[in-house]
Fold this protein.
Amino acid sequence: MITLYLAEDQSMLNSALTQLLELEDDLHVVGSAVDGINAWQELQELQPDVAILDIEMPGITGLDVADRLASSQLATKVIVLTTFAQRRYFERAVKPNVAGYLLKDSPSDDLIDAIRAVMTGRTIYAPELVTNMLSAGTTRNYLSAIFSKLGVHNRLEAIRVAKANQWL
């Protein structure tokens, strides 16, 4: 059973998400809050497996809560769930080792899949956020480095090498 804590300042969304998550056989919401201060206090006490945090909340932000969790070395993994696809929020979220960063307009199955994925050690970020972080030049640089390491000249050759090595 994966224990969850939900911090979302919109009461209706908080209740709806709690009910939705409770429908899953392997998920259990152990607590929730509509502000960051109560979330932080209860997270220290409950120590759930995963905390799902909104960014903008009264008191302290979800990112502040994530920072505190990271510095206190609690084992709780953090998934940020927000409407903000802003670079500055995403960059700040990555610093305290946030395990997931999803947008609220994502399908609910994405959140459920992300919870299970972060419990296996994976990191899940909304594709829109990663795309915003990388410029065309950075992408080109990464591709060049990959091609060089694989000893290939283009994407098609890289895919062939990956398939031959059963990486895909």
